[in-house]
């Protein structure tokens, strides 16, 4: 018994220690601030709060009600939206809810092409398929690594879908919201902008807010460039959509909505109101610096003609170095964490060893890295690609990472006496139990 217990503790400890020594470039991840993280540990993790604040099905939820209203208000303020729904437990749940609502009458949607980064939840393999909503992919423009606007507009006018989805997972270049929204609205279709990856960049105004560009609904994860707890959110100015969405999240997509994440979400929203612009602009500058240095070192970076990136992402073609799978594994041995990725020209069955690697700089930016360190990171990556022993490169990775351990653009516990006191009390309570 105790052996297994020890094993469990060992695994968690090993993970935590290891990941604090890595340069994490997974584009869909981030870290919370210490203050937000400390609040993640609270008793709400044990509770149910089905329904809406102050109209719950169980007793015992008065503080959950309060924090949920506060988190909702802060998200509305941050994104300048009239309505926010914070109960989806993930971006996929947020998409499911919105797709379900918008696809009630007409089961037809237009989605971004796979090459321009559509997420599995937009496809027949994911939630849209599971909801039996037919999807048509917009045409792809190879030149601009984006949706082909003219052809997409024609398609929208011909197909007359219930809704059009924008946004994606491989997303160095933002989709054209204005043009697509105009075409969609002309045939009575809604536009859903899936901001899972770029919510933090929108919060920090490095990207325009899709709701002000014509999107009717924005769905997102709250833990990618938005550095909050893992969860989802739906934002809109459309009262009718909001009403339907909030009647659908529960009971269709969540019962328990994991309320213990809401205090951390509220703190992260506050932090983004205060530090969001600084953070987002540094993220984009860092991504550009990483891309430029990789390019200068002779690595093929996608989108050279377009300035490589306008988001947190940098995408490289590593076919001549053995492919995405091989390079990702070697980089992991060097404590640089990335993921292999299909590139626009890869057939879908190339997923075992696709041409590309996708990287995001948001987490390392949070830890305080700037353009200079991005160049250093590029050189470390290139050394691995050139065949140097990853174990040797790892030594330098660990050394570099040691200098960047404090989370910036957010609050420390010591920033607020009350936060420190609360956390001490929480630990004491937990230890006595
Ligand atoms: C990550 C992602 C999602 C899903 O988010 P989860 O929070 O992981 O469920 C949805 N859409 C896009 C574009 C994504 O990249």
> What is the CATH homology-level superfamily of the domain at 36-269?
Type I PLP-dependent aspartate aminotransferase-like (Major domain)
Number of strands: 17
Helix amount, in percent?
A: 40-55%
Termini Cα gap:
21 Å
- Work out the radius of gyration: 22 Å
* CATH C-level class of the domain at 36-269: Alpha Beta
Number of helical stretches of at least 4 residues: 16
* Helix/strand/pairing category: alpha/beta
InterPro entries: PyrdxlP-dep_Trfase, PyrdxlP-dep_Trfase_major, PyrdxlP-dep_Trfase_small, Ser_HO-MeTrfase, Ser_HO-MeTrfase-like, Ser_HO-MeTrfase_PLP_BS, SHMT-like_dom
GO cellular component, one term: cytoplasm
Keywords: Amino-acid biosynthesis, Cytoplasm, Methyltransferase, One-carbon metabolism, Pyridoxal phosphate, Transferase
Organism: Ignicoccus hospitalis (strain KIN4/I / DSM 18386 / JCM 14125)
Concise account of the structure shown:
The protein has 16 helices and 17 strands.
How is the secondary structure organized here?
Blueprint: H1 2-19, E1 23-24, H2 34-40, E2 51-52, E3 55-56, H3 62-79, E4 83-85, H4 91-102, E5 108-111, H5 127-130, E6 134-137, E7 140-141, E8 146-147, H6 149-159, E9 163-166, H7 177-186, E10 190-194, H8 199-203, H9 210-213, E11 217-221, E12 232-236, H10 239-253, H11 262-296, E13 300-301, E14 313-317, H12 324-333, E15 336-337, E16 339-341, E17 356-360, H13 362-366, H14 371-385, H15 390-402, H16 417-432
Parallel strand pairs: 1-15, 5-6, 5-9, 9-10, 10-11
Antiparallel strand pairs: 2-3, 4-12, 7-8, 11-12, 13-14, 14-17, 16-17
Helix pairs in contact: 2-11, 3-11, 4-10, 6-7, 11-14, 14-15
This protein binds pyridoxal-5'-phosphate (PLP).
